[in-house]
């Protein structure tokens, strides 16, 4: 083990004079208390490290001991359903300074192990060698990615500690590997897969504005930028509860303690809408509130994505929500500032962009080493100061994501939630995902989507004009366009996270709602052509129903849709009859 002595210390970073070799990203035991640290720079005989604990009390001359291993986390059956800090230390135990070489924390859980291999079997990296009894996903015991050989011995079914040896592999190189249900993996190294696959299906979020207008692909990456109080956290939580991923990894990064407390209190109580079991059974929460050590916040998003990849490698679809990546970038800035590095834009270090890329590039849909399909979809919230999207974190993030969900202050103030601005947001995988909608029986999806966006663009243009000439002087069909756009905003895009009926909207219901809306808009267009005034259309009672369609037409009402379509038809028929009678008089 290499040794060094602290020469200088400032907050979470230190410099130490070395006489023996250290590795970049090597985990360290710092000071007499053996605080967890990591080498972040090496130059000549000077080592720079960040420390993942409160460094009060550390002083020049204190020892720094190398572990010979990169900073890693232990991936195993003990993760799912639990709450951890940024280095995967069970929350609550933080402060006890658990330490095992290279590793933030050791757990001591026991699990019921079922072997899936026998003595003499061939073994390769990523293979499932056993399973843990229980309910829910994420129960496969994986051979660590880089190991291959033959089973020398495997334990019979029984209860073992998560880190106890249950499998001994004779490596191809003749070395012997003692493996447990859990294995260590360096947080900054992407886990390997057999093949990266391209996008083919959306991750269904149950949010109409996302699934219909700005979908994110399974294994894709999305950013959710929004100023203070525009709804980032509420939307991230809705996604965690309702999206169709098998496993949720939720990173609360640098948010205020009370906000995180809401998440921590609420999640364990939630029921999984798909199974009726606790949602926590398929969730991992990584929490780093603003009062916790800043370096651990820097590491937390890598820890989170490593955990997500581990479940991906078990053939699962994983959604990772990070709230907020801006607080993560601030941690990077703070550490960089302490090191006296030359600050770039807004004080962020020059490597901000490449670090963001390292994170988002780990979103993936893959063929796993075990031959299955798995994915990690990443959704990063961004909190630009003053809601200014040209600031560095938002603008760099924009380069790496394919779905951009811009939260808008005006829409939030109008309580038009989710406050995603349809003209400032985009999604790049629409053509590919259209095929999926076609398979769901909605081959008009792309057309509807284009039409809806067209209406919203027209609305923006006409509203500018209406401000000058007055709304009533616009021609009838333009007034109708405004009415149609209002209807779409009000009745389709708006969706309350707190409505029992409407907080989730299945693709089937989204399709049905869109069809009803478009039917109304088409018939209204014909009526106006025949001389009906937009004011008469605006006064139609059926319009009230459509404006509240999300509430009035729940998942359970899907079968009664023909009725509603018929009612729309009848309403326009009645309008024409009234018109004809008036003409006749
Ligand atoms: N989808 C939604 N449905 C209903 N209400 C919402 C929704 N999104 C946000 N709100 C309302 O807006 C408030 C603020 O939302 P939220 O806390 O998510 O904002 P934020 O962007 O995370 O704020 P901060 O910048 O402080 O982190 C919520 O308490 C809620 O009242
Ligand atoms: Mg928030």
Description:
The chain is α+β, with helices and mostly antiparallel strands. It folds into four domains: 3-71, Elongation Factor Tu (Ef-tu), domain 3 (Beta Barrel), CATH 2.40.30.20; 110-181, OB fold (Dihydrolipoamide Acetyltransferase, E2P) (Beta Barrel); 195-428, P-loop containing nucleotide triphosphate hydrolases (Rossmann fold, 3-Layer(aba) Sandwich), CATH 3.40.50.300; 445-584, Bovine Mitochondrial F1-ATPase, ATP Synthase Beta Chain, Chain D, domain3 (Orthogonal Bundle). The strands form five sheets. Strands 8, 18, 19, 20, 21, 22, 23, 24, 25 and 26 form a ten-stranded mixed beta sheet that branches. Strand 3 (26-30) and strand 4 (35-43) form a beta hairpin. The chain contains 16 helices and 26 strands. The site of magnesium ion has 4 residues, from helix 2.
Strand content: 15-25%
Number of strands: 26
Number of helices: 16
Alpha-carbon distance between the two ends:
101 Å
Question: Any low-confidence stretches, pLDDT <50, length ≥5?
Answer: 93-106
What's the CATH C level of the largest domain?
A: Alpha Beta
CATH topology of the largest domain: Rossmann fold
Shape: elongated
Helicity, as a percent range: 25-40%
Query: What is the CATH homologous superfamily assignment of the largest domain?
Result: P-loop containing nucleotide triphosphate hydrolases
Number of domains: 4
Provide the list of bound ligands, each named once.
Answer: adenosine-5'-triphosphate, magnesium ion
CATH architecture tag of the largest domain: 3-Layer(aba) Sandwich
Mean pLDDT: 92
SS-derived structural category: alpha+beta
| Main beta sheet | 10 strands, mixed
Q: How much is the radius of gyration in Å?
A: 28 Å
